[in-house]
Amino acid sequence: MLDSLRIAVLLIAFAQPAFSQDCNEALRQSVFASSSEYHSDWRLYQSLTTEEYQQKSTSAGADAVISGIPMGGSYDSHRENMSRYESIYEESLSQSQLQNIYWTGLDDNTRIAYEACLEANSFGLLMAPREATSSSVEVVLKYRNPDPQAQRLPLTWSGDTDSLSLPSEIGTGEVVTFVVPRPQGGAERLLSVFGGGVSQGLTFTSLPRVITLPDFNRFRVSLKNGAERLSSDAEISEITYRHVGSTVTSPDTHEFQFVVKAGGNSERYNFTVDQSRSWQDQLRIYDIGTGYLEITFTSYNDGVGDMVWRIHPKS
Fold first, then answer.
1. What is the phi/psi pair of residue 209, to 5°?
2. Where are the beta strands (DSSP E) in the chain?
3. For 48-71, what is each residue's pLDDT tens digit?
4. Domains in the chain: boundaries
5. Nearest CA to 225 among 217, 236, 216, 209?
6. Cβ–Cβ contacts within 10 Å for residue 313, how many?
């Protein structure tokens, strides 16, 4: 009796949740390669590890920008830039929201592979998302017992079960599907099932609005320029320049000053470019009243520079 109890406790302890780290990591990689609108939100890249960032930046190339995120700089610079974007947009994603975004809009191959991975890591009873849209999630329930003559498994449900048609038992080899409407207004909906010493749980969230970063713009700028129009209500002018150091005496830096006129305001800014570092490492963001100007020089030679910039509108 005591041995049976120990086995049941171990099953409960190790079966929660069924989503193994390997399955989620494989799903994450598929999402990063996805072209789905749901997966274009820059906040998905908040969770990139050092290894993932290095792999992406290497494969994408030095000047690559993915979902608005510059990928050619150092990982420390990536984290610094992400912190800036987080402060601008003042919205982050919870782990439950991330998971729900990962489920949504998957292609058939990714969806099938994810479900198969979860099933391989389950302890007989599996409850998993099968297909998710912006309004609902189709859930699959499976039971696998090596004994084909095993009795049907009684199920106990908990959480938000309102309006759901849920089975009270399941036989080995059976597959049951049901649809869970997503909660609205940022709420969460929890659903759990228990059977045969195994507990499975899912958390459903409303999908947050997709936030995409604006595209970078490029222009060639020189000290002779009068003014460069950045947007309908922003321009850069009065550029001055000073060279500090040389290629021999590191660091070889270039110091710029420029005036940004935006939203009826005018302000002078300082900017220093270190030629030994990539432009993605030197992005700077300035509050220009109507939005945030993100700007850097990609190169500079004989009074002419190449600049990249974009404006993040204030919401």
1. -65, 145
2. 65-66, 69-70, 125-132, 136-143, 153-154, 156-159, 169-170, 175-181, 188-195, 198-205, 217-222, 227-231, 234-244, 253-262, 265-274, 284-287, 291-301, 304-313
3. 889 888 888 887 777 788 889 988
4. 2-39+96-205, 42-92, 217-313
5. 236
6. 10
